[in-house]
Design goal:
The protein has about 375 residues and is an all-alpha fold. It has helices at about 1-25, 30-65, 75-135, 140-145, 150-195, 200-215, 215-255, 265-275, 280-295, 295-325, 330-375. It is found in: Cell membrane.
Amino acid sequence: MNLKSKQMKNSLFLISFAIILMWILDNISYTWNILGKLLKIISPFIIGFAIAFIFNGPMNFIEKKVFGDKWKFKKVKRKYKRTISYLLTLILFITTIFTILFIVVPELVNTVQDLGNKIPAYVDRVELFAEENLKSNPEIGQWIKNVDWENMETKLIEFLKNSALDWAGATFTFASSVLSGIINILLAFVFSVYILLQKEELIRQTKKFVLAYFPKKAYHKIFYIAKLSNRAFSNFLSGQLFEAFIIGILFFITMLIFRFPYALMISLIIFITALIPIVGAFIGCIVGVFLIMVVDFKMSLWFLLLFIIIQQLEGNLIYPHIVGKASGLPSIWIFVAVTLGGSMMGILGIILFIPIFSVIYTLLKESINNRLRLKEIRDIK
């Protein structure tokens, strides 16, 4: 009877799952719309959890290493240990951000001014190039003369007038989005504070919930995967940050040695963009080439060569030994994770998919090894 009841439950579950899946596939656009709205509603909590995860590492370090057991038997101080550790972590992050801004903003202003001063010379070069080509190709000059510039100007003015209302509406929408974004970030920040200050209680409540509604075997599996995920994400973030820092320093030193312009500015841009796995440094390179090209075209080619050399060094030595070891993924699976993540979710997908693949890879590896051990298969050549 029990066996029949269990089989009936499993059959009902499979039938229900199949019906729900068929409905989702038949109404895929509606489903995506609902998921989008749901994601928008819960986004402050997702962002808050991400902030808490990033803050947790430094806060734990301060709490355990700075204060340690010195406060263990002092109840008044122990009560405030977590709060003080959190505040110190917050001060550390704010100081880091303002330090970067203090370096970047003046350099950015100088760069823009320098580019502004050099643009007229660039325009003169373009005009000279155009004149030389018009002399050698008179048919181009004749074609330009035949263009109805007055008609084009009239159409442009009409287009701008018609677009004025659209621009006003877009400006209002943009302002509303910015305000909504600020509110979401504030809510996320408050949520992250609650998570960090009460994380032990939240973990205890989660354990009670899982034990109450899931079998004990599933409970151990769920929390093993949770620990594995925590380690994978922590190792990946710390490894990626360290790798970006090394690349930024390498560019700064080599650019100073070879006297490239905008050394500090470009190095900081590459450091920030290199936080995006694999493709990030290329984005920084494009910006660097453009900035140097305005000053000296030949030097921009030398910078491109420098980037290729450092990128080869990073790809063959730094990345596999830092991020590769930290994530526990072979290089080919890192590439697959980045490709799939980027195509599905953009930059966020690139960042998330490497640790997710790391967890899946570890679980699959353990499962394969266990099955081979049960079959008494040891060495496969």
